[in-house]
What we know:
2 domains, mainly alpha, two-stranded parallel sheet
Amino acid sequence: METLARRRGRDLEAEGTAVLPVGGAQAVVGYLRRFGPFGERRHLAGLCDADAAELVRHALRQTGVGAPSTVDDMADLGFHVCVEDLEDELIRAVGPDNLERVLAVQDELRAFRTFQRQPEWRGRPVDAQLRRFLGAKSRRTLRYARLLVETLDLDAMPAPLDAVLDDV
């Protein structure tokens, strides 16, 4: 979020906006209680993986933020859902070939090629391999999210990421 905001000419800190890593959908209730309508009453927006949407939807209801019944309802409240996850959104936006070029610049293409030869991943679609490779280490996920947001043309930014920024 911070990288995209900076690229779009926004200073979230100066705007009084904080970006908080929740640490998984199970933890979202605590944040919504603390910052939501029965807590500090902050303006909230968020991004979640598709497999966490139901947990986040329930948390929004449980904490009084809203009563969404669909992904569109969640978006109306400022909470956006990635098709799979942020890595998937970014991989589709940048494309596997371009991502492999980024891996090469980061001196990780060789490690990715080794990963691709593992029996479990051999022959699988390259986008699935890339997604798993990026997600294999938490620091790698965060680093590549920043790098890919910096690499992407602003017009090609994944919609959920842009939408969260628009909501803050």
